[in-house]
Amino acid sequence: MKKVFINGAEGKMGKAIARIIQSRPELGLEVSIRRESGQAVLGDFDVVIDFSTPQGAQEAFSIARKHRRPFLTGTTNLPETFLFQMQEEEKIPVFYAPNVSLSVYFFTELVRQAACMFPGYEARLHEIHHQYKKDAPSGTAKKLADVLELPYENVTYERTGEVVGTHTASFVSAFDEITLTHEAKNRDLFADSAVHIALWLMKRESGFYTMSDYAKFKLKEKRK
Ligand SMILES: NC(=O)C1=CN([C@@H]2O[C@H](COP(=O)(O)OP(=O)(O)OC[C@H]3O[C@@H](n4cnc5c(N)ncnc54)[C@H](OP(=O)(O)O)[C@@H]3O)[C@@H](O)[C@H]2O)C=CC1
Ligand SMILES: O=C(O)C1=N[C@H](C(=O)O)C[C@H](O)C1
């Protein structure tokens, strides 16, 4: 069994990840550490999965480096300096994605292609999330804005109810409008993917990885 250290373990994502690990023994994983804010880390672990806060992610990264264990974070709104530090990492395998779902990765690629297909159109982005979400616009929306070369200030957003995460890219002309929407139906979309990425990350060399690396691996695996 490989031991998983969940950082932000009592949060919405942390709980979903623990539930998936516990309900699927065939994955060969067990939760060995459930860390919340300020807690010391006692015990052994083979990989860190972090869905917490920018501060929590940086703390968990330091712990992973100290113990030389792979580190995966999906926490959003991370400072640029920390993103740069992860990108430069040489001691351990590090993975970061503002959205760990493969379907969102391919949705982003669709949006990229649509932007090329409708060059004269005005691109718009709108996202909707649950009332508890701390950051706005979402990490996924910022990634989509980068793809569309839109300033983040132009992204519109709503915070309402229990909405898991909806992202809409529109291409608007005076004559028509093309709309692409990704709607997450529940958090297992992210939690299940995070667990599989962690399994994959444990087999990687030291260095920085993103969804593009994971998607390439999955596509290769499919072709076999
Ligand atoms: N990449 C992706 O695909 C996804 C990313 N996310 C991102 O993941 C993050 C967490 O989301 P979510 O689970 O909904 O948020 P929650 O607020 O439900 O959970 C965050 C948890 O982290 C805990 N925490 C706070 N500070 C620390 C710390 N210093 N060390 C360890 N734990 C800490 C919180 O404790 P307390 O409540 O006591 O402060 C809370 O239990 C967000 O940044 C969100 O945007 C979410 C879903 C998918
Ligand atoms: O906080 C969330 O819930 C989510 N956060 C990520 C983001 O900011 O893009 C991913 C997903 O949309 C859910």
From TrEMBL:
Keywords: Amino-acid biosynthesis, Cytoplasm, Diaminopimelate biosynthesis, Lysine biosynthesis, NAD, NADP, Oxidoreductase. Residues 104-213 form the Dihydrodipicolinate reductase C-terminal domain. GO terms for biological process: diaminopimelate biosynthetic process; lysine biosynthetic process via diaminopimelate. GO terms for cellular component: cytosol. Pathway: Amino-acid biosynthesis; L-lysine biosynthesis via DAP pathway; (S)-tetrahydrodipicolinate from L-aspartate: step 4/4. Pfam families: DapB_C, DapB_N. The keyword NADP applies. Gene3D superfamilies: Dihydrodipicolinate Reductase, domain 2 (3.30.360.10), NAD(P)-binding Rossmann-like Domain (3.40.50.720). It comes from the Bacteria. The keyword Cytoplasm applies. Its EC number is 1.17.1.8. It catalyses: (S)-2,3,4,5-tetrahydrodipicolinate + NADP(+) + H2O = (2S,4S)-4-hydroxy-2,3,4,5-tetrahydrodipicolinate + NADPH + H(+); (S)-2,3,4,5-tetrahydrodipicolinate + NAD(+) + H2O = (2S,4S)-4-hydroxy-2,3,4,5-tetrahydrodipicolinate + NADH + H(+). GO terms for molecular function: 4-hydroxy-tetrahydrodipicolinate reductase. Signal peptide: none annotated. Residues 3-99 form the Dihydrodipicolinate reductase N-terminal domain. It is an enzyme of class 1 (oxidoreductase). Belongs to the DapB family. PANTHER family: 4-HYDROXY-TETRAHYDRODIPICOLINATE REDUCTASE 1, CHLOROPLASTIC-RELATED (PTHR20836:SF0), DIHYDRODIPICOLINATE REDUCTASE (PTHR20836). This is 4-hydroxy-tetrahydrodipicolinate reductase. It comes from Candidatus Avelusimicrobium gallicola. The lineage of its organism: Bacteria, Pseudomonadati, Elusimicrobiota, Elusimicrobia, Elusimicrobiales.
